[in-house]
Write a structure and sequence with these properties.
Shape: globular
CATH class of the largest domain: Alpha Beta
Number of helices: 17
Strand order of the largest sheet: 4-11-10-9-8-7-6-5
Number of domains: 2
Radius of gyration: 24 Å
Structural class: alpha/beta
CATH superfamily of the largest domain: Aldolase class I
CATH architecture of the largest domain: Alpha-Beta Barrel
Largest sheet: 8 strands, parallel
Helix content: 40-55%
Distance between the termini: 51 Å
Strand content: 5-15%
Length: 429
């Protein structure tokens, strides 16, 4: 009997040392106390062990993914650790990333019955172009850090599934090549340069390439404190100078993209040396006015989270907004974008389209955003998980899953078009 109990205690001590306990959120102090206890403590520890998360095998084919979360561990295994830190991290303690996800739990669905939903139309129209889904492929920089084909694979997936795609200034594929691979319109996301003459040429280049809209990102103008990025980059022992002269890059830390080495950032290269027109301070609404005067493209602003700024955007002639906190990578507000969305909708007052992004992982998330007044929802990390795991095939699989979930939610809610989705289809949790 004593031998059996001793063996059981050794086994439980081994289980208690498992990282799965930490992953499950159990306190080490609680476990050590149980190990020092008697037979009742053994029973309690066995009960805790029964609640450990199960480590399932990773999917090996894109078509085996059941939800977007199936792609995350596969991508993490495939992507270099420093690059993963860039993708996964936020600012400070990453609390706003968690807040973005938790925000969706504040709302529940109100399913409706006995409505004919045999045919639904999930299409959305932006500036004269119609897409079959309101799920937007948001800009994510440096995609060749996650897969050799980078944005090319994503553009091809966008073409195959007919999604609106927005290309980052710091993409590792040019706007010209992205539009060619997409076979249709690609919006261009803009990080301003310290020299207006360069920013202006960048905007004009996007317009010549055929981009119908430019998305000026404003939530990083003050920089951000990317602790996870810095911490994970220290674990990477590779020689970064093959891609980045002067050592590893630190994107987003300064709020400015004026890299000295742009070998892998084609949208930052090839501009004529003109007399400099240096910016004074960080951009204000005057900068937005300049953008509007510089281009015939539609000008949207990304990073708006308040009613006041939404109203100012309309006042300055902005053509659309992205409710965004950069996926939790900008300010550490700990405020979900889905929480900010109703304020922005009120400020815009129905005059311009609104895309909401930040933490979208399920079709139900997309539905809740549209019920709160968004025109569409943007995704970032999920399609990069697909890219890092399986390339273009992975991106297409992620898009397919999200669209299937969203359209199923539409049917369960008795809505056959996006215009029918409203606040009456959701309720506070």
């Amino acid at each position: 009997m004593t031998t059996d109990r001793s063996a059981r205690r050794r086994f439980l001590a081994f289980v208690a040392s498992s990282p799965l306990f930490a992953a499950a959120g159990f306190e080490p102090g609680l476990l050590s106390g149980l190990l020092r206890g008697g037979r009742d403590a053994d029973r309690d520890l066995l009960d805790l062990a029964g609640h450990l998360p199960v480590q399932e095998s990773l999917i090996t084919r894109a078509q085996d993914g059941l939800d977007v979360f199936d792609f995350e561990p596969v991508a993490r295994k495939a992507i270099p650790v420093a690059h993963w830190g860039y993708l996964a991290g936020g600012t400070d303690d990453d609390a706003t990333i968690a807040a973005n996800r938790a925000g969706f739990d504040r709302w529940v669905l109100n399913p409706r019955r006995l409505i004919d939903v045999s045919r639904i139309d999930a299409s959305v129209t932006f500036f004269g172009t119609t897409y079959p889904t309101p799920i937007v492929i948001n800009p994510v920089g440096s995609q060749k850090a996650f897969h050799a084909q980078g944005e090319v694979a994503v553009a091809r997936a966008a073409r195959a599934k007919d999604h609106l795609m927005v290309l980052s200034t710091v993409a590792t594929t040019s706007i010209e090549d992205a539009i060619a691979e997409r076979g249709g319109p690609v919006w261009f996301q803009l990080y301003h340069q310290s020299d207006w003459s360069v920013t202006k040429q960048m905007v004009q280049r996007a317009e010549r390439a055929g981009a119908p809209a430019i998305v000026f990102t404003v939530d990083l103008l003050g920089g951000s404190n990317r602790v996870t990025l810095l911490r994970e980059s220290r674990k990477d022992t590779r020689e970064c100078t093959r891609c980045h002269l002067g050592g590893p890059p630190l994107p987003g830390l300064t709020g400015r993209v004026d890299a000295a080495d742009n070998r892998r950032k084609p949208n930052l290269k090839g501009y004529e040396k003109l007399p400099p027109q240096l910016e004074r301070g960080t951009p204000t609404w005057e900068f937005v006015d300049r953008l509007k005067q510089t281009t015939r493209m539609k000008v949207l602003v990304k990073g708006i989270v308040t009613e006041e700024d939404a109203a100012l955007a309309v006042e300055h002639g902005v053509d659309g907004l992205f409710v965004s906190n950069h996926g939790g990578r900008a300010e550490n507000s700990r405020r979900a974008t889905i929480t900010s969305l109703p304020e922005v909708v009120k400020g815009a007052n129905g005059r311009i389209p609104i895309v909401c992004d930040g933490g979208f992982r399920r079709g139900t998330d997309v539905f809740k955003a549209l019920a709160l007044g968004a025109t569409a929802a943007g995704i970032g990390r999920p399609y990069i998980w697909g890219l890092g795991a399986f390339g273009q095939e992975g991106v297409e699989a992620v898009l397919t899953i999200l669209r299937k979930e969203f359209e199923l939610t539409m049917k369960q809610s008795g809505t056959t078009t996006l215009s029918q989705i409203s606040r009456r289809h959701i309720a506070p949790a």
